[in-house]
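[Solved] Which block belongs to which protein?

Original post:
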Amino acid sequence: MDKQALIKKRYEFLPHTADAMFRAYGKNLSESFSNAAEALFMIMTEVKSVRAEVIKEIKVVSKNEQALLYDFLEELVYLVDTEGFLLSKVLNLSIKSGAGQLELNATLIGDTETKYEIFGHVKAITYSDMYILEEPGFVVLQVVPDI
């Protein structure tokens, strides 16, 4: 499959022996992180059915891109576990670098899980088989959440 087709696809799930595994694609790091967030929530529910009722602003600071991906997705798992938040859409997500670290800011919109069918639960994000591959105009992320 060519890179443009993968970007249009946004993410895909791959076979894995014990947990879930997905790859998220984008034209840049921010877009691929946004698509990874949607893929993560697709493990739990049908994202397209989640109404846009609640807005969340999040900020994550990490030392490198892989740590930023891990910390961002862990923050999403935390929102599910503590507030029952389910993602409908990432409204905007930006990643900036400076002072030897990366800062991610995102606006998320979604709803609480009490109104939706939940068919999976993500316990945690892992570094197992995680990678970020960046080329000009194309980024792929691979993540294996613990379910």
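(Second protein starts here: sequence line, then its structure tokens.)
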Amino acid sequence: MKVAPKVKHSNPSSNEFVFVAPSKIEGKGLFARSSILKGTDVVCYQGPLISAEEGNLLSTQGNRYIFAFNRKFYIDGSVKWNLARHANHSCNPNCEIVKVNSQVYLRSVREIPKGEEITYNYGYSFDGYENNPCLCGAKNCIGFMVLEHHRNRIKTG
């Protein structure tokens, strides 16, 4: 399996697999530089490791890039050198989150053609789901960003 290199701080807008560009989903997104094979660790989610308490506080203050690493620690992905922060949510994602040697990667779950936007399921809990609207536009979109097993709890239409 090919593992993506750590993002160099001098160029936070691309690595060998992806580049940042305007997204139809929201704001900026990550896009495949060339075809990406299934099982590729596309990009590492980087940032300072902070306590869960600090992560929750920053999140309530509007930091959208807080990533729960485990129950005790979160990653503050708001740093400019975190390329993965540009990956948008999708109800039909082409990547998933995996932990590799104490790091978090977006790993492709299928082949991704050149130019396709890199997405993953943000995996938000059901509590307060109304506060997390989804704009992905996928055929199976339910309108909210929730964990897969909560999708059937949300009534659509």
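Accepted answer:
You had them paired correctly. Confirming on the second one: The chain has one helix and ten strands.
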